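hiii, so i know i said id send this last week but things got crazy w the move. better late than never?? heres the sequnce for the chain we talked about at the cafe, plus the structure i predicted for it. fair warning i was half asleep when i ran it
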Amino acid sequence: MIIFEAAQSVLSLAIIIMIGYFLASKGWFDEKTNKLFAKLVTNVSLPFLMISNFVANINKEQLGQISFGLVRPFTSMILSYIVSLMFTRLLKIKKGRQGLFQVMFFVSNTMFMGLPINNALYGEYSIPYVMLYYISNTVIFWTLGTYCFQKDDISNAKRSFLQMLKKILSPPLIGIIIGFFLVTLEIQLPKFIMDTSRYLGNMTTPISMLFIGITIHSVNFKDMRLTKDMLAVIFGRFFVSPLIALLVCYLMPVPVLMRNVFVIQASMPVMTQVAILSKAYNSDDKYAAVMVSMTTLLSIIFVPVYAAVLSRI
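okay and structure toks below
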């Protein structure tokens, strides 16, 4: 029963993805639209979603209780990174692609996919735990992930500390920080501000799914031939990372809902920003775009299975 319910939750999102794909094929959406959607979600709807959900769903006492869980996603992602290094050597991943391979292996799409899927599976009570994983994912992506990309960069272009700090302090993370201080200081925002935050935040899921549909449409499916690199990324995303997250939560016990959210977040597809950053660092951006699309499609199959398994353990 639970796998059917989980499948329905994911399928509702898949339908929006298909609408995005269909409208892109009809010429309604193009690459400019996709860039606009990405900016709209990242800079507008997500920050307001963070603020509204923090204030609406968490009080000062609960904030202290959930903050202790932050070490779990950090630990699980570092362990996944170590495993990715082993696979890099074992499979002899070619130079110019090694860092990209490692990033896709241990970093997941926690917002464009993770947030709406967890919200569909577990409701608004899961949002604080989604935020914890997002914080870990964001910090690691723009630090350790950037370091991995630099290894692939044949131009040896280095990013300054201030540039990296600017990337880490993204608008969604700033939204989390604002929400954190509002709850900590027990500041009550006026109703019209909360309503505005909620309305803008509610745009996140549909626009994110349309964005993914447009991204999938932009990839030539003839390029999606399975190689050992691709199979290894799929194995890392859907098997290694979630199993490590589950093991970490077992060794450092957390509430069931927190555990479930962390495992689902760890099993999300390749982060969409990977394709953008791989181009900026002169890595194999075509390979990255294919893996973003391929793992996004596969997540429709794997997520209901994990939701069913988690409900029984």
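btw The mean pLDDT is 81. thought thatd interest u
miss u guys!!
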